[in-house]
């Protein structure tokens, strides 16, 4: 029926999106969802070019970065992806995912993401460790990174444009986050401080 996989996927996604009344959040995960799966590259991928052309503009596209589990994300790569998809990507970040190796648990700070990525993103999803309690540091440090990226403390509208929202002082007391910088080590220390307080509070509760 369809001349290519990309056209088939875009057609089905568009139909579902319209049938649901074009919801404000509608995510599409392409078959080529990272650079290592693209042939020969994201910008020259016929598949991604078709997805970018055919997919309705209100549909957001998921991207994991250079690899399925990307240790680094650069502004240059996101610019390339945005150009071929004709929209800013939603990063599905597998930095902490351990479902592929459950013998490991990732407890380091959120890092390896270049400063200023926020303006290149439509959104960001974090795929955490399978062990719920082990995600305190990943989520806490992601929050610190996010706060530092906001700078003037903005929020995205449906088109992915960021607008002023809350004063930075209402989001925490991290000086690094308030002045627009992000230090993974400082973020880790903040997370550890709050995690110890959380553990102590739980330990003091009756029956714990």
From TrEMBL:
Pfam families: NAGidase. GO terms for molecular function: beta-N-acetylglucosaminidase activity. InterPro entries: GH, Glycosyl_Hydrolase_84, O-GlcNAcase_cat. Residues 1-150 form the GH84 domain. GO terms for biological process: glycoprotein metabolic process. PANTHER family: O-GLCNACASE (PTHR13170), PROTEIN O-GLCNACASE-LIKE (PTHR13170:SF23). This is OGA GlcNAcase.
